[in-house]
Amino acid sequence: MTGSKLLIVEDDAGIRELVCLYLKAKGYEPITAENGHRALSLFQSEKPALVVMDVLLPDMSGLQLCRTIREESDVPVLFMSCRRESEDIVNGLGSGGDDYITKPFDPAVLVARVEAQLRRYSMPRNGEDSPQVWKDGYLEIDPLSCEVRIQGKEVPLFAKERQLLLFLFRHPNRIFSTVQLYNEIWGWDSTTDERTVMVHIHHLRKKIEEEPARPKYILTVRGFGYKFAEVAGR
């Protein structure tokens, strides 16, 4: 993915220039915007492979910008923000973000997360999948097309939610820790943020479980992690 265009949305010129400097050193082509409206214009005209954006922008929230991007694209979105509370991270990932890094940050770490997102996004989606559709009368998973349906209606999942579900689905009844899931789906194994996994599990349950508080498919194994339950229909 070296040479890919990456959109950097940041109103602080110093941070913007620093991020661009590190990305250029890795062979990427950063394009920059200092506000949300300029970012949307560049996103539509330049078709970047990934977006790095601040949450606090002068003309609109980065969360709003991410939701707008998600209406037309599933390219990776990485938030960088001085807001570090769990609620802030939940809101960022819930708006469609794939990862969240807090300021101040090591630019080398940011670049590593960018590269991990690009690798995961460019991976073939059908390589490990069986062509057989799985369904149990309520939930339906098509591993070949990566589509998920509830009672025949497609579920609108964000990219990382879909990747997480399909990964767990491919390994039924196998327990994965939050660290293992983060490494598999996000691909960064040095500064694992367990909250990222927990937030995506939370949103995924809200979308596919009949009773999210009493999940049937994605189960928590206390002290160990999560698993996709082997239920009737497989």
UniProtKB/TrEMBL annotation:
Residues 5-118 form the Response regulatory domain. Keywords: DNA-binding, Phosphoprotein, Transcription, Transcription regulation, Two-component regulatory system. GO terms for cellular component: cytosol; protein-DNA complex. Transmembrane segments: none annotated. The modification 4-aspartylphosphate is found at residue 54. The keyword Protein biosynthesis does not apply. Gene3D superfamilies: 3.40.50.2300, 6.10.250.690, Winged helix-like DNA-binding domain superfamily/Winged helix DNA-binding domain. It holds the Pfam family Trans_reg_C. It comes from the Bacteria. One of its GO terms (molecular function) is transcription cis-regulatory region binding. Residues 131-230 bind DNA. PANTHER family: PHOSPHATE REGULON TRANSCRIPTIONAL REGULATORY PROTEIN PHOB (PTHR48111:SF40), REGULATOR OF RPOS (PTHR48111). This is Response regulator transcription factor.
